[in-house]
Amino acid sequence: MVNNYSTLIDSKTCRKNIFTAGSKVLEATAVGDVNISIEYGDVLLQNVLYVRNLNVNLLSTNSFTDEGAQVTLDQSGGQIHLANGTSLKISKNSECGLLEFKGDTWQESAMTASTQPFEGIDEEFELTEKKPETSTQQLWHEHLGHPGRDKARAIIKKLGNKLMTEVDPDTALTCKQCIQSKSTVAQMGQGSRERAATHLDLVHIDLILDTSYVTEHTCILVLVDDHSKYVYVQPLLWKSQAFVQLKKVVSFLETQTGRRLKVIQSDKGGKWENNEARTWSQDKGIEWQKTVDTIVSRTDGWKE
User: Reaction catalysed (predicted)?
Assistant: First the structure.
């Protein structure tokens, strides 16, 4: 997180609440990338939040570890080993007791002297965009309930010259709502395997990451019972909460159905590859299956 908007590259507006250790809530109003110059070259940090009332720029160790980085900290400092092999050195500030990373953030002198990078966004980064003009034909098309070409012609014939040229039958061909409502989503293959015999014989799980920063949640845990097709969805603040929430959901489902979970099927994501998950599944007698990338669409594509 940064407190200087001009350091962001390819920024866009967002609304996200940041909870500090002192239970204070800060608001992030923009997100973008930040380029940091270090001794060995430049490092590009992605999905960096702009928080106006932040006292100092902050690095989230949870975000680094979620992206595959390794973070080692001790009383004197530490290092962050990024997935691309770059290492960031962290030293302890004896005056304030904080661990600091020293690097020069990218500053664009032309930007500070020119106009604001976003047109239509004021100093508080609230949208003031001008809505596009809607044609009279489109307005009549919407007021009449989005009629098709044949119905539009029937309306014109019924009303005669009262509407003149305000109603155009061809508007249905360019109306975004009409095009979207008539579109269909291609279904993935159902596969050849049979459905589970009863509840909790097989449960599919997946973790969906959300990088839009529209809400404070960063990912969604999804569980689908193979027999009943019962779907459980739980938004999560952090990716690290996925396994804890999974255990709670399994306990809830077992209590409600009076049955024990037999098999869990998931992808090969690193979020499920840890000793705690293996120990938990072994203690409960749960078989944990991992799907093969080449047959995901055939075995559980409907869940994906």
Answer: DNA(n) + a 2'-deoxyribonucleoside 5'-triphosphate = DNA(n+1) + diphosphate
